[in-house]
Amino acid sequence: MKLQQLRYVVEIVRHGNHLSAAAESLHTSQPGVSRQMQLLEQELGFEIFLRTRNRIIDLTEPGRTVFSIAQRISTDIAALKALKEDIHAGARGIFTIGTTHTHARYVLPTVVERFVARYPDVKLVLRQGHPEEICDLVDAGDADLAIATDTTREFHNLVKLACFDLERCIVAPLGHPILAVPKLTIEEIAKYPIITYDSHYSGRWKVMKAFSDAGIEPKIVMSGIDADVSKTYVGLGLGIGILASLTYDEQRDAGIGARDASDIFPSSTVNIVLRPNTYLRPYLLDFIQSIAPSLTGSAIRAALGQG
After folding, report:
1. pLDDT tens column, 232-255
2. Lower CB count within 10 Å: N or C terminus of the chain?
């Protein structure tokens, strides 16, 4: 059994069971990947993948266990390589962060500004996506950590450290009736077309659950766009927005008003997401503590099972 074969298993699953895509990411040939999988299955004595007409369609039940083990081994090897680099580099290296638009735009600017000034020899890379995409980056070892709200899919190989909550607000053009109604209720909100996040964000499914619990079917006219774009279309009068409160600024968002809706829609918890075997470089700990001062080094190590 070769480590390379286990890496092939991980890459095949990561690329939706497409051998050609996995081979391309591994800089090898599709027949070579296929042959290595056949050899590994022969050695193990069972099939890792379900196939139809020589095409992989899913993992077998024992194959899921193989994938889980292969994934852990791959990330452990990545952690060892990072440790080697860190010991020789000191406060140098590449620090990759997975982040959503909301956090990149509204949470991280002051944190990044301070970090860059303090660690000029560390190259900071921000990779943006929705919460599941950036958790996948961490899971695969392609990002050191992610800053994300809750995901609909579980990531059993990752550890979530709660930082703070995102409350919600209603945004609408100045003069809109929703901004003047004496008591804001979910029934009042449902009278108007709504612009909000797509289903990959907890802001969407928590909002929809609140409507469902109230027995209301809202009219969602736009979704799948970030807060800044949402506010642009709100300003055009296409609907009212249900967004994270921190995305609204009275001075910056001319022509738009906001009302607190934290008592109507549940908040979302912002988490730092890490692999359990993450090597806690001093600048990584410093970065986390800049976002959530309560997450001390000892608390982080305890959560990761490292101390």
Report:
1. 999 999 999 999 999 999 999 999
2. N
